[in-house]
Amino acid sequence: MRAGSAVHAGGVEGSGVSVTAPWVRTRLRSAPGAAWALALLVVVTACLAAAFPRALDRYEDAGLRHAVRQAGPDRTSVQLSGPQPDFVVPQRQREADLRPAELRRQYDKVRTAVGRPLVIDPAQSAYGVRPAEDLAVPDTWIPRPNGLPAHVYPAAQSDLAGHSTVREGRFPRAAGQVTAQTPEIEAAVTVATAKSLHIKVGSVIHVPGEGRAPLAVRVTGILTPRDPAGAYWSTQPVLRTPTLVVLPTPDQPKYWLGALLLAQDAAPALLGTAAKPVPYWQLAPDPTALHAHDLDSLKAAVAALESGPGLQQVRTYTNPDTDLSTGLDDVFATFGQLRSGIRPLTAVAAFATGTVAVVVLLMAGGLTADRRRTELALLRARGASLRGLTARLLAETAVIAVPAGALGLTAALVAVPEGRTVYAVAAALAVTLTATAALPARAALTHRAVRVHGPREDVTTVRPSRRRTVAELTLLVVASGAVEALRRRGSSGSAGDQLVSLAPVLVGVIAALVLVRVYPFLLRGLARPARRLRGAVGHLSLARAGRTSVSAVLPLLALLTALTTAAFGGSVLAGVSDARDHAALLAVGADARLDATAPLPTQLPGEISRLPGVRGLAEVSITDEAKPRDGLEAVPLVGVNPGDYAELTHHTGLGAFAEGQLKRPADSGAVLPALASPSVATAYGTLPFLVRLPDTSAVTVRIVLVRDVTPAVSGADFLVVDRAALSGTAARPSSLLVTGDRVSGAALRKAAGASAGVTVRAEERARYVDSPLQSGAERIYTAAVAAGAGYAVLALLLSLLRAAPERAALLARLRTMGLTRAQGRRLLILESLPQALLAAAGGALTGWATIRLLAPGFDLTSVALASAQNPVGEAQLRTDPVSLAVPAIGVLLVAVGVAGVQAWWSGRRGSVRELRAGDAR
Q1: How far apart are CA 234 and CA 237, in angstroms?
Q2: What pTM was estimated for this model as a whole?
Q3: How far is residue 572's CA from residue 785's CA, in Å, rounded to a whole number?
């Protein structure tokens, strides 16, 4: 008999007519709850799997665009500049080369030389003529801070009217055809330039001529930029904002430099000046078109422009001597380094969570196969072929999984609208195929041989086969190789190195296989002391625990992988947080600090100490120009109150010492004890030496303490002494170091006013997270750990649900024999405890071992301190006890809770009803 003929519906007895009902419809109607549960599992899993690559793309794209915007248009724009005028070329030709029509033609061709995926933003790109050298003007009405004449930067940039609005006057125009001999032209200036250089509408600025009279530039308008931060204005910031230039001489004289915005047709007039005008083209990349997955192609496109085919095309379209400059390559390289430090961490979370999700899908299929074991065995015994049975089961699950997978994919595309679609589709398809094939594959393996009653497969009696032993040894070798590769090479390997990212998962796999091997021995070891227990509950619970099927390796694998991932992820997040806290503490030296270049007001310390949240205050004087032994090299000398400063060092943990070690001696002429950095201690030793201060006073000190760091200064060189021994001028505090749990930066700034700058540790810490790539990676990692934990709980529930009918029937039979409800609860709880304890202890141990093994290969500095200018040391991965303990305890609580709920529910149903239900099954 074929498998399809085993199910009949609507047949009339004696009529000789038998109507065969469709297999899929019949099975779905017979177990609608299981079908809906599978559909829900596939929807959620497919949605998470499809959303992950798109979320990763979104955060990486946001990080790349943030890096480009943060670098500024002056670095990221592609700036092309033609050569200076060649006087061999006829004057008319030189003038024609600077006219707008020719520059526009060249600009349109230059844009075609930029290769994909680098996209140029035409709204922010521009072209025009600018001076090779700014010019000093003789007009005395322009401010001269140090008596030096102001300089001007006459530039004719395209589309001035489209990027600014007129505040006063009008836009400049060119009367007729302008040549190198034109005596006067028109220009405009920005509001900032007009304010700083005292320019008004109608002002005339005289640009020195070369071989002719000065060129008169009449200002006809004052403009307000529409997008001051855009590339149009910020590629050459002087066009928007004047600069106070400081000359590199001992007295550092200054002069103003401002831009004159000429009409484009007036550019040839600059040929009659010493400005040496040159044509230029500035191409601004479109940040919205930048994608992190195109980073290699973006680097190649920039390289082609800088020294490849792109540069050759540009010079063909413009001039053989055209120069090209851009900082895009540096920006892309910096972003690539940050991403290479973050990607391995997100890959670990993705692979681990994906492994747990796959295990849960396989367990769901296995649970259905076990629930229908008798039915499928009967079909095989009645002649159903293995191929036909597998095909029908495949169709049955496909009807559920395929629409659910499509729904999950749709939800992911709607929830995360950005990112590549192909990877999302592939991820959702993989989930759908796994869910579809789990039940048929498990049924095919279980029922490949025709038998009605299967052999007993207790974990305490079945000996592992040779194939299983070989598979376990193979996994052990692969996992060991992955871990060793990661330890040797570090986490900066290639992003496609899947094996390295799978190392924590492989460690969990090996631990699961080892623990399953050890589990029978542990049960046998518990059986001996259990003999001395009174009552039957203990013996029954151990006997029931020993009847666990050997297929329990899947839930154990899910639990261990999830626990390992949670411990690893918690340690990563804790390590990142600790690194930021420590870096902020080193930068500030306390919870907050106030610094001034001059002595602080005498009443300020009292006002600060009375602010809410302030617990302690240390007044320090910092002298940067103290010179030991009359030498030329200066060492920062810090004058402190030993009591307050010692308390501060103990609070922060930065170079702690006892108060009495720095107190000045009672004898005013005695040598002053000092605390020094290792470099200063090495340079000056432990003998007394003289230190001269800028106010001509001097103190004799002797180094008695050496510390690597101290709160007052962050450099590698310092001396700390009791400020009571310093002169009155040197002892006056210039900094206040504040401690407190809730120090308000706004309150400190209000109290300090303009007398001091305020730095708050919490604000400094927040500054380290300035890239969406950092925050996005943390969110993805947290979400992955949470999803892994959810799937682990689901795996635990599935494993308990698998044995729920058998346990309920057992409790019903035992109650007819006198077992109380309390004893029933204890029985189920004690039965579930061995596996739960094994998973919890094994998970904590595996997580600890994984962190210890992989810590040398992971550097968290990129995630924690990417924006720090000089991060102190590396942010290392360390074991976080909370991340180890909390998930393990959670597993125990879930297992005990489920067992207790099952015992309570079974007690409510009643023994007779449960036994009848069991017989019906």
Answers
A1: 4
A2: 0.78
A3: 11
Confidence band, pLDDT 50/70/90 cuts, at residue 210: confident
Whether 197 contacts 244, CB under 8 Å: no
Domain boundaries, the chain: 27-77+330-343+360-453, 78-292+304-325, 455-579+770-921, 597-755
Q: Which class for 891: exposed (0-12), middle (13-18), buried (19 or more C-beta within 10 A)? A: buried
> What is each CA distance from 13 to 8, 9, 16, 19, 478, in whole angstroms?
12, 11, 7, 12, 62
Cis peptide before 117 (omega within 30 of 0): yes
Q: What is the band of 546 on the pLDDT scale with cuts at 50, 70, 90?
A: low
- Residue 451 vs residues 338, 365, 381, 444, 461: alpha-carbon distances, Å: 59, 21, 7, 13, 21
Summarize the confidence of residues 624-639 as an average pLDDT: 84
Predicted confidence at residue 405, as pLDDT, reads: 94
**Token output for 232:** 């149009």
DSSP 273: B
Give pLDDT tens digits for 155-191: 999 999 999 999 999 999 988 888 888 889 999 999 9
Q: Which residue has the tokens 């009645």?
A: 382
CA distance 694 to 707: 25
Q: Is the CB of residue 380 less than 8 Å from the CB of residue 389? A: yes
Q: Tokens 């200063």 label which residue?
A: 680
349: enclosing H helix or E strand: helix 328-371
* Calpha distance 498→466 (Å, rounded): 28
- In this prediction, residue 22 carries a pLDDT of 73
pLDDT at 457 over 70: no
Cross-strand partners of 673: 702
Per-residue pLDDT band for 773 (boundaries 50, 70, 90) equals confident
Which of 443, 151, 394, 125 minimizes the C-alpha distance to 281?
125
Note whether 743 and 613 are within 8 A (CB): yes
Alpha carbon of residue 302 to chain centroid: 26
> Which ranges constitute the DSSP H helices of 547-677?
553-588, 604-609, 642-652
Q: Compute the half-sphere exposure of residue 127: CA atoms within 13 Å on the CB side of its CA.
A: 22
Report DSSP state, residue 120.
B
